[in-house]
Design goal:
By secondary structure, this protein is mainly alpha-helical. The protein has four helices and two strands. The protein has one domain: Orthogonal Bundle (Helix Hairpins).
């Protein structure tokens, strides 16, 4: 029963920070939107015909963008660690139940 309690605690811990994680992961996109212009290159107006304009020097100089990318990478690592823990706990539960 300890495994079920651990699994529930892991799920609850992950759910408690989902909004925070989402905001930090969306941060780089929001920061890029200040510098990047997306446009259609064809009359079909689909993803295959998308283009982008940006000033690389402005992107490289934007400290806020760099910080937001760093935060998103850090948060992704945290998310991956919790998801890995949940997966391992679930697998242990399955093993105890005799399922592979």
């Amino acid at each position: 029963m300890d495994l079920l309690g651990n699994q529930r605690a892991q799920y609850e811990a992950a759910q408690a920070v989902v909004g925070y994680w989402r905001d930090l992961i969306q941060g780089p996109q929001n920061a890029l939107d200040r510098h990047v212009e997306y446009f259609y290159t064809t009359d079909q107006m689909n993803e295959e015909g998308m283009g982008v304009r940006y000033d690389f020097a402005a992107l490289a100089a934007d400290r806020s963008l760099k910080n937001k990318v760093f935060e998103a990478i850090d948060v992704h690592g945290d998310w991956l660690a919790i998801q890995t823990d949940i997966y391992q706990t679930t697998r242990q539960i399955g093993d105890r139940l005799g399922r592979k």
